[in-house]
């Protein structure tokens, strides 16, 4: 009996000390007060759930794990002069992001069929090297077709490297990838869950989507490799997404991001030094800036660029996102933009694939509408992540308008500053808005309470 009492006394003391350490960690490392408050409430009122959750999910950019991956270092090349740079470009340079590069060619892939065809074309025409990062590689017929194509290229002597996020592609086993592996291709999983379940890795996901052929052609955006995203023929339940094909000097930066991610996940260095000269060849007149974000990038460049966009927009600020759960600073900046007369529009799916995210967005969208912003609900699932600012900026990439993408995930986004590249993005967003329904509905007390709870725990998602 005495030993039992001693054991339980020891357990209580250890639990108290662990909770105290976690509280100090939360207060020091959480970026927003809402995030810190949410974690503190869970740990105080449900410690048996909150403590293991925090150990598994971790805080933002935990030094122990996030910093085991070295920061990305992008090499500046052919950047426009600082005095001619957009305010957002100038801000990002202060964060260590190279300035916008000239001489690029950008072509949008406006639906899943176009994106699938471009991916297959990229694989089929590659002569030396294929590098692919994706959050999801499904085991469906689309994933199988892509794996078979990659296996055939590997068998012909082409270097093939495939990087998958371990959570996003949790059920994509090496058995499924066997054709590629048997033919000499290599596969790596980013931050495997089971390797260190209580090291905060679970919360740090690689959400980047990049495909590169021969160090001179990039296919990127928000699209994963699965039937609901892409395919050779139209599919009634396919999600609406946006990707793009890029040629020119900016390809180099996608290469550097892939190299950093691959080396961290596999231990192997993908050689892009000396740089392939074809990468630097000017391919068009596009002025674009490649902006990675996440634990391997100092500060929060995508979030802060969007914040700057909200404060500097003069005529138009259009946003397309599957999940609208911004932090309070960004939400307030967008509300103020609407109040000062900017054409502020947010397009979201009427129902997304995440019920909790739909609940968490409710109060944000109503507050935005009350300030003069327009909320447009699209009748089908929209997975695209797009921003248009006046006639001076178009943003397409992998980052959603939520706190997970803006503060936790490894993301990559392309900022276009040239009108020839901005107009197709503008026109694509405008076409979606014509199909959507404007307005937000009033909700009853029960729904309002549920949305409030979801918004409170949103920083934990």
Automatic annotation (TrEMBL):
Transmembrane stretches, start-end: 6-27, 36-57
Subcellular location as annotated: Cell membrane
Record has Membrane as a keyword: yes
A single GO molecular function term of this UniProt record: phosphatidyltransferase activity
Residue ranges of every copy of the PLD phosphodiesterase domain listed in the record: 202-229, 378-405
Membrane disposition: Multi-pass membrane protein
Gene3D superfamilies associated with the record: Endonuclease Chain A
A Pfam family matched in the record: PLDc_2
Any single Gene Ontology cellular-component annotation: plasma membrane
Domain of life: Bacteria
Alphabetized SUPFAM superfamilies for the sequence: Phospholipase D/nuclease (SSF56024)
GO BP term (any one): cardiolipin biosynthetic process
Keywords attached to this entry: Cell membrane, Membrane, Transmembrane, Transmembrane helix
Name this protein carries in UniProt: Cardiolipin synthase
Organism: Desulfovibrio gilichinskyi
Native organism taxonomy: Bacteria, Pseudomonadati, Thermodesulfobacteriota, Desulfovibrionia, Desulfovibrionales
